[in-house]
Amino acid sequence: MGAYILRRLLLIIPTLFGIMVVNFTLTQFVPGGPIEQILAELEGEGDVFKSISGSGGDAGISDSSLDVGSKYIGARGLPPEAIAELERQFGFDKPPLERFFTMMWNYIRLDFGESYNHDQKVLDLVWEKLPVSISLGLWSTLIAYAISIPLGIKKAVSDGSRFDTFTSGIIIVAYALPGFLIAILLIVLFAGGSYWQIFPLRGLTSDNFDSLSLGGKVLDYFWHIALPTIAMSIASFAGLTLLTKNSFLDEVRKQYVVTARAKGLSESRVLYGHIFRNAMLIVISGFPALFLSVFLTGSVIIETIFSLDGLGRLGFEAAVKRDFALVFGTLFFFGLIGLIIGIISDLMYVYVDPRIDFESRGD
User: Fold this and answer.
1) What's phi and psi for 8, nearest 5 deg?
2) Nearest to 316 by CA among 299, 332, 291
3) Domain limits at 136?
4) Which residue has better confidence, 362 or 356?
5) Beta strand 120-121 with 114-115: parallel, antiparallel or unpaired?
6) Does residue 79 lie within any of the structural domains?
7) In which element (H, E) is residue 87 found?
8) Are the CB atoms for 229 and 143 separated by under 8 Å?
9) How much is the pLDDT for 71?
10) Residue 215 belongs to a domain with what CATH number?
């Protein structure tokens, strides 16, 4: 197993390289890069050249208005020296291939550049925002599993009953509702929208968080995270519940279950001693996909609605503002987290069923 884990860890390197190649290539065809964003911000601000000098040094140009025929939309009125200075600051004066390998060399040295929009190192920004997104993703995934597994088992045991039919209707409705709609509904009902002011509307902690006791901090944290976590969990637990139920129903019909019952084992012993281990394999296999779905897609919407300063919201804003250094940095960490979770999923396979041996696959 150790050799398999080592191979998987080593495969992270070429996989991340491939991810960055694709992302870097795509950004070369996206209109409105960081220079375009700066030119749009400077448009109509009067002292354009002073703003340029303040963002990265004195370009050494006079306050004149020349039409340079630049390739950048919105560059009319800027002399070529100003455009050249902006290109130099962002590295666009070099060929794309050279820029890419320079970026990867810097990544090897853990230098992810600096966000021009936040005027802060990308690595510092990621470490600052990452705990919020991971916290939301983990709690939502754990809650989804905590609800789905017992509910799915109960539905499988009572297949076709009124309980099964009633809960299936609820699950279908929950699965059909998008996460952002559930979030808005929760805000309207419980965050002072139109009814009750029970939970806070924004942020992960209160303003007086530092002055609270340890118990007060824990309660304050869960008080703030309750609605975002519920909004992210509802859609996730719906599909997972049906997956658990169908997995158990498939195992119930197999011969080893008939044999176990014929030996006189109790129903609970058959269910949790034999069926559970085999049925849970397919459920566990969905853990990485569920976590990544919550972490990558759900977090962007939920963090925005509840004003949570997480990595998903940071990456979305970076993409909108064409902050390429921050875009590449967040995509790198998203990819790295996804690959590591895949390895953890394999380890969970072995923990649930020791008969699985990835070592013998030679892959």
Assistant:
1) -65, -40
2) 299
3) 129-352
4) 356
5) antiparallel
6) no
7) helix 80-90
8) yes
9) 58
10) 1.10.3720.10
